[in-house]
């Protein structure tokens, strides 16, 4: 990939937090994390709690300095050129918080000014975002009196103030009602579609990642363990596809020993046969069953969920 | 890995002003909307002026000695209110756990310091005016008795001292986290105590007086009191005071910038947002 096509690049980032007397307690949050995100992509960063997702995003967002390694956003180094990056980047977190006494428009106006917006341009941008995120009926409500969903929408609105080319979303739908989550996901998809924004998204919701992201990376213990599209990851992890069979007679000796069969489970009158690649193994198994004189009454192939990939990698 | 500061280009003056105004406007909104800001501005300064004025009556002090004490009272309240506004630039974000959003923007130390200081100066002038009114009405004390120029220089010196103290409070908070937030109220009292708030620094033990000689407020108090007939303890108190405070503003600005970089390294910036 040409350098100008890369929006976010990280190479061997490490970060250790030190705490306690004489910095005796050490927590290695990142241990050589690397990633590359093309411009205009939605990149999912998945991992269990404490895996290093927020640390990685914070380094890329210039809020945290790495111990070693390098990273750049839109060609600017995150350590040496932080201010150049901050003009073109923004971030929203699932647990975002703003000054409690400010109203939504005042929060947006404060941060808008920090991005250098003023006068009609600032007023127009604030109004547009208030309208877009349906905050208009809460204009007079102070931040600490907003519901969680409204706070989240305000956080997302704040993150769009500077029309960022790169946007980091740290668990943006955390703890939200399903209808609010659906609307926020629609906003995220629209951002990429309409503005070509490059987005890095961390989430615990596999369906959200599968639905939104072009590429997904799994991070655990400060390292990226696997990276690819949802389908590539499912194949890469080799957790297999499941062929569900209803047979007559219902039990077959020797099926578990066939080539490519990874596991066999019986659930009621159904046999779940996990194989490495259903496309290749299904004809072989059907042929073999026919040779064994077994009647196949029903047959379905189910793909593994991304959640299973996550569980497998998080183990 | 070192974090070499980027060059500090002044963007257009209009953009610089917009960023300063962001902090000023936020402080103004908070001051308008929260009752404890009204107390800071009226109740405590009013109580201080009345109680100290009554004390001078009880002790039957001469008008000159009354002026000596009340100049100190005004200095303490004006500096305290002004430095609190500077400290609020960081404290508001700490209390609301929103610190990281501020440092995610292309804002620089000078914007948060000067923007909030502007409101501090305005509030300091209100405090001074209120105290001057109470002092004149209740105790017949003339605050411009030393002349308008010395008074203006004295107030400017107090507000610049407040800027330095406010920046140091912000620095302490970004070094030690919420444990250091009480310094916003403690630091100013400690510094004015050393500056000879209600007494000449000649009454202090030698080594304490040596520390006092390094505090700009010592010189501004001395210069102001000279206008009420007290012999100055220094040759050019205003010049020395402004030289010192200018140096300290630069050093305090640098210290806060260094503390922000350290907070980015240790992760405190993120911790203060959780």
SSE arrangement:
The complex is a heterodimer of chains A (315) and B (274).
Chain A: E1 6-19, E2 25-38, E3 42-46, H1 53-60, E4 68-73, E5 76-77, H2 82-88, E6 89-93, H3 104-114, H4 119-132, H5 148-159, E7 166-170, H6 178-195, E8 198-202, H7 206-212, E9 215-220, E10 223-228, H8 230-237, E11 241-248, E12 261-267, E13 270-275, H9 278-291, E14 295-302, H10 306-314
Parallel strand pairs in A: 3-8, 3-9, 6-7, 7-8
Antiparallel strand pairs in A: 1-2, 1-4, 4-5, 9-10, 11-13, 11-14, 12-13
Chain B: H1 13-33, H2 35-58, H3 63-95, H4 99-103, H5 109-139, H6 148-176, H7 183-194, H8 206-212, H9 216-226, H10 237-266, H11 268-271
Helix pairs in contact in B: 1-2, 1-5, 2-3, 2-5, 3-5, 3-6, 3-7, 5-6, 6-7, 6-9, 6-10, 9-10
Low-pLDDT ranges of chain B:
1-8
The unreliable regions of chain A are none
The CATH H-level superfamily of the largest domain in chain A is P-loop containing nucleotide triphosphate hydrolases
Under CATH at level 1, the class of the largest domain in chain A stands as Alpha Beta
User: Per the principal axes of the C-alpha atoms, what is the gross shape of chain B?
Assistant: globular
Secondary-structure element sequence of chain B?
HHHHHHHHHHH
Report, as a whole number of angstroms, the end-to-end distance of chain B. Answer: 25 Å
How helix-rich are the residues of chain B, as a percent range? over 70%
Quickly give the CATH architecture of the largest domain in chain A: 3-Layer(aba) Sandwich
Which percent bin holds the helix content of chain A? Answer: 25-40%
| H/I helix tally of chain B | 11
Task: Output mean pLDDT of chain A.
Answer: 88
Biggest interface: A-B, 45 and 43 residues
Number of domains of chain A: 2
Overall geometry of chain A comes to elongated
Percent of sequence in beta strands of chain A: 25-35%
Helix-strand topology string of chain A: EEEHEEHEHHHEHEHEEHEEEHEH
Structural class of chain A: alpha/beta
CATH topology of the largest domain in chain A: Rossmann fold
Largest sheet, strands/sense/barrel of chain A: 6 strands, mixed
């Amino acid at each position: 990939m040409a350098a100008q096509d890369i929006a976010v690049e990280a190479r061997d980032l490490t970060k250790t937090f030190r705490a306690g007397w004489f910095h005796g307690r050490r927590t290695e949050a990142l241990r050589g994390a690397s990633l590359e995100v093309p411009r205009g992509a939605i990149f999912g960063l998945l991992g269990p709690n404490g895996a290093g997702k927020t640390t990685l995003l914070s380094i890329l967002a210039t809020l945290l300095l790495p111990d070693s390694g390098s990273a750049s956003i839109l060609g600017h180094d995150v350590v040496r050129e932080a201010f150049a990056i901050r003009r073109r980047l923004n971030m929203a977190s699932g647990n975002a918080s703003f000054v409690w006494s400010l109203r939504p428009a005042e929060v947006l106006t404060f941060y808008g000014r920090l991005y250098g917006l003023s006068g009609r341009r600032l007023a127009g941008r604030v109004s547009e975002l208030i309208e877009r995120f349906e905050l208009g009926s809460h204009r007079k409500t102070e931040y600490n009196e907003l519901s969680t969903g409204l706070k989240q929408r305000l956080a997302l609105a704040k993150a769009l103030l500077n029309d960022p080319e790169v946007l980091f979303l740290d668990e943006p739908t955390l703890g939200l009602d399903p209808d609010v989550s659906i609307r926020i996901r629609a906003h995220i998809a629209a951002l990429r579609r309409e503005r070509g924004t490059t987005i890095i998204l961390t989430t615990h919701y596999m369906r959200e990642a599968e639905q939104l992201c072009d590429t997904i990376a799994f991070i655990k213990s400060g390292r990226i363990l696997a990276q690819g599209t949802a389908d590539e990851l499912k194949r890469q992890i080799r957790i297999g596809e499941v062929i569900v069979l209803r047979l007559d007679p219902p039990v077959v000796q020797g099926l578990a020993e066939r080539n490519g069969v990874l596991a066999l489970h019986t659930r009621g009158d159904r046999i779940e046969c996990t194989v490495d690649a259903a496309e290749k193994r299904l004809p072989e198994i059907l042929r073999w069953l026919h040779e064994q004189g077994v009647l196949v009454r029903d047959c379905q192939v189910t793909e593994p969920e991304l959640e299973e990939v996550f569980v497998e990698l998080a183990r | 890995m070192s974090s070499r500061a980027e060059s500090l280009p002044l963007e257009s003056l209009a953009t610089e002003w917009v960023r300063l105004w962001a902090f000023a406007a936020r402080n103004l909104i908070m001051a308008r909307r929260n009752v404890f800001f009204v107390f800071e501005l009226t109740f405590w300064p009013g109580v201080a002026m009345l109680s100290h004025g009554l004390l001078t009556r009880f002790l039957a002090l001469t008008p000159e000695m009354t002026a000596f004490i009340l100049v100190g009272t005004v200095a303490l309240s004006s500096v305290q209110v002004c430095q609190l506004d500077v400290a609020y630039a960081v404290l508001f974000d700490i209390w609301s756990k929103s610190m990281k959003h501020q440092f995610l923007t292309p804002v620089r130390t000078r914007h948060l310091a000067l923007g909030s200081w502007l409101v501090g100066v305005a509030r300091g002038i209100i405090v001074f005016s209120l105290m001057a009114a109470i002092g004149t009405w209740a105790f017949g004390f003339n605050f411009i008795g030393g002349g308008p120029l010395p008074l203006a220089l004295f107030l400017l010196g107090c507000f610049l001292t407040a800027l330095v103290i406010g920046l140091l409070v912000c620095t302490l908070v970004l070094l030690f986290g919420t444990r250091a937030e009480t310094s916003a109220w403690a630091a100013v009292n400690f510094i004015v105590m050393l500056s000879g708030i209600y007494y000449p620094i000649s009454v202090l033990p030698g080594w304490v007086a040596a520390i006092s000689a390094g505090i700009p407020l010592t010189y501004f108090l001395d210069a102001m009191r000279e206008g009420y007939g007290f012999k100055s303890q220094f040759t050019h108190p205003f010049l020395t005071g402004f030289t010192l405070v200018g140096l300290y503003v630069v050093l305090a600005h640098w210290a806060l910038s260094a503390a922000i970089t350290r907070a980015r390294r240790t992760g405190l910036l993120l911790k203060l947002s959780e």
